[in-house]
Amino acid sequence: MACAPQDADPEEAGDDSPKHGGCRTAWLAPSQNFGYAAPDMIRVRDLTKTFRPPGTMRDLLRGRLFGEPHLALGELSLDVASGEILCVMGPNGAGKSTLLRMLAGLLVPSSGEAEVAGYDVRRAGALMRRDVSLVVGDERSFHWPLTGRENLMFFAALHGLSQAQARIRVAEMLGRVGLDEVADRRFQEYSRGAKQRLAIARGLLGHPRVLLLDEPTLGLDPRGAQDLRHFLRDHIKGGAGRAAVLGSNDPGEVRAIADRVLFLDRGRIRGESRPDQIGSFLGIADA
Amino acid sequence: MPDTESANFANVMVAPTPRDPSYSMWFGRIFLATVRREIAEVGRYRMAVLVRLLTLALGAISFYFLSQFVGVAPNHHLERYGSSYLAFGIVGLVAMDLQHVGVSVFSQRVRMAQVMGYLEAQLASPAPAWLVLAGSPVYDFGVAGLRSVAYLAGASFIFQVRFGHMQLASVLLVSLLVLLAFVGLGLLTGAGTLLARRANPVAAVLGGLSLFLSGVVYPVSVLPSWLQSIARLLPLTHALEALRRALLQGASPRELAPSLLALGLFAAILAPAGFGLFAYGLYRARIDGSLTHY
């Protein structure tokens, strides 16, 4: 399935279009470009998200309830095959987090279609959220006075696990992300890397088929980041019918983990490349 | 597309798989996890809990001394409720507390989840939103219920307040209607918090109005007739009238018909409106991307 070009209007890109050595990557299907013939786990067509912020006093005086609309994502199309890890790169505000949240069903698209693991994201229900997991390293998403284990036990209940099942699964996940020794310390005492690991453990509690990760190794030490990348690759490649989309701005991470890289800027796809060729896109030397 | 909320409901309710517990079991697990979480948090803020308990005890004791003060003279305003000011006041305190919890709990929990940032993470879990969002308020209602029982038991055993005439069927019926009306109000204020992302003043305003007009510390009959008319627009006025007469005078549901009818009307309007607006608030949050905003 071919991805449609997103930057059809060259004027819109203007002078701010990313410098990528004249390489406007050909829009080829994953199966043609990277050898993925497996069925798509994620299929996105013309996905658009426009936010309408609440009106300021000036807007209200003009009789408008909302401010100027802000395009966060514009007519984006992409496919992710089974077993594939897609990285999305782009500057702050490019739309990476918005894309991941829409794929997780936490944001309703303004227009367009998206199917993740066979589910329509507009109707994101319990079944979809069982198969699709969003991992955000937001420290605010945990209960700070509780221990790491207590936090995961609570989220395990949200996954419908009994206490006995939860205890086993939580211990398994804590061990998997290397937190078993600090599992009974309060979350507020965790280092940034430990918080990030706990977020990943939470994302994996329910055996998801599609993982959506927003800067998953942010704050991890190099060894921890490497472990996590290996773990994620093993997890995605080791099981049938799994895929991941990763928002990241770390070239090392992208090279280490991705099968394919997508470049977003101001809500639109500006290009696509192999991980070993991102240097030309980013204007840095390829390793 | 295989997934809709109704399809989920059918799948989970009709044919649960080992991975999908029934809704009741799922809610039970979330509720127990919430209780464990709250107890763990309470254990880490012991001083705050002690201060709260002390405040409640002081409230009850002050009613005792107030009753010593006003109880010596016969008061025809209290005849309708058994003539004991302490019993009158304790029931007022209990109902006021229940109203405060009912009206503020959804708003407070939503606000806390917005500010602390775990609302999005919890809603990203497989549990349906209403299961996620109901766990904490049900815990709060449970605690408020236990607190009410403790107040009444304390009044009975320590201050010898007699509830011997209590009509249980009436009490249960009144409690159900009061719960529905207060939950409806609570959901409306919770929806306001979801939509506006601001702490909601409704609970404070309603609390102040109710304390003034609903007969919490004095009977409504002492108010001028025009204020009594306004008082009838508040659900707590009818809740207090029915609860006091059921608890202290053993009034049957038939005798409480006017109050029950008024409470039923409040419940019939507020509960569906609250559920509807809260669902809309959640939907808007998914459109605005405001689940993590604060």
Labels describing this entry:
heterodimer; A: 287 residues; alpha/beta; 6-stranded mixed beta sheet; 4-stranded antiparallel beta sheet; 10 strands; 32% helix; globular; disordered N terminus; B: 294 residues; mainly alpha; 11 helices
User: Helical amount among residues of chain B, as a percent range?
Assistant: over 70%
The helix/strand series of chain A, from N terminus to C terminus, equals HHEHEEHEEHEHHHEHEHEEH
Please indicate the percent range of residues of chain A in DSSP E strands (runs of 2 or more). Answer: 15-25%
* Overall helicity of chain A: 25-40%
Q: Could you tell me the mean pLDDT of chain B? A: 81
Give start-end ranges of low-pLDDT stretches of chain B: 1-18
- What profile does the largest beta sheet of chain B have? none
* Number of helical segments with 4 or more residues of chain B: 11
Number of domains of chain B: 1
Q: Structural class of the helices, strands and pairings of chain A?
A: alpha/beta
Largest interface: A-B, 48 and 46 residues
The number of distinct β-strands of chain A equals 10
N-to-C order of helices and strands of chain B: HHHHHHHHHHH
Average of pLDDT of chain A: 81
The total strand number of chain B stands at: 0
Shape of chain A: globular
Major β-sheet strand ordering of chain A: 6-7-8-3-9-10
Strand content of chain B: under 5%
Distance between the termini of chain A: 30 Å
- Rg of chain A (C-alpha, Å): 20 Å
Largest sheet of chain A: 6 strands, mixed
Word description of this protein:
The complex is a heterodimer of chains A (287) and B (294). Chain A is an alpha/beta fold and 287 residues long. Chain A has helices at residues 10-13, 30-33, 57-61, 96-103, 126-131, 148-158, 163-176, 192-203, 222-238, 251-257, 278-282, and strands spanning 40-51, 70-81, 85-89, 111-116, 119-120, 132-136, 210-214, 243-247, 260-265, 268-273. The radius of gyration of chain A is 20 Å and the shape is globular. Mean pLDDT of chain A is 81; it is low at 1-37. Chain B has one domain. Chain B contains 11 helices and no strands. The two termini of chain B are 34 Å apart. Mean pLDDT of chain B is 81; it is low at 1-18.
